[in-house]
Specification:
By secondary structure, the protein is α+β, with helices and mostly antiparallel strands. 29% of the residues lie in helices and 21% in strands. It binds inosine 5'-triphosphate.
Length: 198
């Protein structure tokens, strides 16, 4: 596979994507991009495109411009909360909050709520030869009432995918990637890249 840039600042996403795609990926940090990549859209699709475009188009990096670039935007959509936190999943408890802050707030907002259904949705935006492509992956599950497991990141300790008893945080990286939103979205990306001989 040719060089591929993953426009993310999230090291957990990076290691999952490298394991799923089976390749090493170039990151913004590798390119000397130290600022936060803007994500101000109101949809996962919009944010994924915004992040991919930002890095693909970045000025002053001529050696890298034109290299196929993709970004991932992911949201946790909770049925009883009308799809929240959704596109705001990273800053559910406020700008600069931790994964723990977000999980605690979600558990608090679901106290006494019987309907625990939730879904992770990942949208991957790829820019290749100036053309834009979108890929999606989802996994359905439920939010449990307490933290379980040490693996993964984000909302993983409180999310149990349908058909399983463990949270994502209790699974190995391989198990999570085999069934996860990101695993599915990246598998679609990989299929597409194969058709382009990449
Ligand atoms: P980049 O934008 O730099 O890629 P980010 O962490 O800001 O990284 P998102 O905007 O996609 O990523 O934020 C989605 C949030 O949803 C993220 O901060 C986590 O809290 C959560 N999240 C994303 N993927 C997840 C996963 O696989 N398991 C659990 N939580 C996840």
């Amino acid at each position: 596979m040719k060089r591929l840039i993953f426009a993310t600042n999230n090291r957990h996403k990076l290691s999952e994507a490298e394991a799923i795609l089976g390749v090493g990926l170039v990151t913004p940090t590798d390119l000397g991009i130290v600022e936060d990549i803007p994500e101000t859209a109101e949809t996962l699709e919009g944010n994924a495109l915004q992040k991919a475009r930002y890095v693909y188009d970045i000025r002053g990096l001529t050696a890298h411009s034109g290299v196929p670039t993709f970004a991932d935007d992911t949201g946790l959509e909770v049925a009883a909360l009308g799809g929240a936190p959704g596109v705001y999943s990273a800053r559910y408890a406020g700008v600069g909050c931790s994964y723990d802050d977000n999980c605690r707030l979600l558990l608090r907002n679901l106290e006494g709520v019987a309907d625990r259904r939730a879904r992770f949705r990942t949208v991957v935006a790829l820019i290749l030869d100036g053309n834009e492509y979108l890929f999606e992956g989802t996994v359905e599950g439920k939010i449990i009432g307490e933290y379980r497991g040490e693996g993964g990141f984000g909302y993983d300790p409180i999310f149990v995918p349908d058909g399983f008893r463990e949270t994502f945080a209790q699974m190995s990286a391989e198990q999570k990637n085999a069934i996860s939103h990101r695993g599915r979205a990246m598998a679609n990306l990989a299929e597409f890249l194969k058709t382009k001989n990449l």
